[in-house]
């Protein structure tokens, strides 16, 4: 059975690569591939394996997303600091 999951957005090439590297050990162990195209992830499994496959895919997706979250938090913190400095330096004469 082909299970097709819709991702929240089109997966950029570097995200697909990172996901593929993280999925590879599981793929070797189970013999299942997970293919990402645009905003869909397709995996083949038996019906009775569906929940386990979803759980594994969610773990790998979460691990793949983690570095992006860290970068986004760093950028947000940097921007907040810049705004705070700018507010402190503005003068209204």
Outline the secondary-structure elements.
Elements: E1 2-6, H1 13-30, E2 34-37, E3 40-44, H2 50-89
Antiparallel strand pairs: 1-3, 2-3
Helix pairs in contact: 1-2
Outline:
This protein is of the alpha+beta class and 93 residues long.
Write up this protein.
It is a single chain. This protein is of the alpha+beta class and 93 residues long. It has a domain at 2-66. The chain has helices at 13-30, 50-89; strands spanning 2-6, 34-37, 40-44. β2 and β3 (40-44) form a beta hairpin. α1 (13-30) packs antiparallel against α2. The protein is elongated, with a radius of gyration of 20 Å. The mean pLDDT is 86.
Please summarize the sheet with the most strands.
3 strands, antiparallel
The averaged pLDDT comes out at: 86
What is the CA-atom radius of gyration, in angstroms?
Answer: 20 Å
What is the overall silhouette?
Answer: elongated
First-last Cα distance: 71 Å
- The proportion of residues in beta strands is 15-25%
Instruction: Indicate the low-confidence ranges by residue numbers.
Output: none
Provide the helix percentage: 55-70%
Query: Which class do the helix and strand fractions yield?
Result: alpha+beta
**Number of strand segments:** 3
Order of helices and strands: EHEEH
Going across the major beta sheet, what is the strand order?
1-3-2
Helical element count?
2
